[in-house]
Amino acid sequence: MKNKKSKNMLDEMQDNQLLKIEEFGFWLVFWVLFAAVILQALLGTTLKELAGEIAALLAASVYVAFSSLKNGLWTRKAAPTLKTNAIASAGPSLILGIFNAVRAFVILKKPIEFGATVQIAAMCAGVYILCFALLEVFRLIYNKRRMKLDDIEEEKER
Amino acid sequence: MTQKALAEAVGVSRQTMNAIEQGDYNPTIKLCRAICRVLGKSLDELFGEEDS
Q1: What is the tally of structural domains in chain B?
Q2: 3-state secondary structure chain B
Q3: Which of B3, B10, B12 to mutate to test the interface with A (most CBs of A within 10 A)?
Q4: For chain B, which residues lie within 8 Å of any Cβ of chain A, measuring from their own Cβ?
């Protein structure tokens, strides 16, 4: 079998358009799958039954995170700082909190007790700390990578 | 030279050539140079700032 690189039939503008379409498609699938996992988990589907969907989400997340870090990229909207990481970590924590509260008090109809509320709050705090620590590790790697990539550019200029 | 002929000579679609002419798409330097080569003009002549 020949390892021949197939010719791109699109010109650069069409290629950019297709990349944008593919990017939108990727995020559409990602968030719809994420919503489906949350909804199914709320309706009582077990973790084992959701393993395929969760594995797909994790694979996509790990790929995006590591490819971005490798290329020295963060997000388009925010610079990597302690403050933005602290704010961003609240998102997953809040989602988990709402998910657990809805599951416990609305779906399973458990009585709203101090113990259960504290348990949910503790879980949220744990996820917040975990996310914040992970983002801070990513920020350290990003800064190192950015420095290395920019150094190469400077050497080329001389 | 027609837009269609220029697009064919450069190797892009007519839609892309039209978008460049209309200012709706910013081509890469590589594509700019290909257009210049076909038209026998310099980058400055084709894409440079006009004197006011």
Answers
A1: 1
A2: CCHHHHHHHHCCCHHHHHHHHHCCCCCCHHHHHHHHHHHCCCHHHHHCCCCC
A3: B12
A4: 11-13, 15-16, 19-20, 25, 27-28, 30-31
Residue A66 sits in the same domain as residue A79: no
Contacts of A14 in chain B (CB under 8 A): 13, 15-16
d(CA B34, CA B24): 19
Distance CA A90, CA A61 (A): 18
- Interface residue A9 vs chain B (CB under 8 A): no
Q: ipTM greater than 0.95, yes or no?
A: no
For chain A, residues with pLDDT lower than 50 are 1
Query: Long-range contacts for A51-57 (Cβ within 8 Å, ≥24 apart)?
Result: A57/A30, A57/A33
By residue range, what is the domain housing residue A39? 14-70
Enumerate the residues of chain A whose CB falls inside 8 A of the CB of residue B15. 13-14
**How do residues B18-33 score in pLDDT, each as one tens digit?**
999 999 999 999 999 9
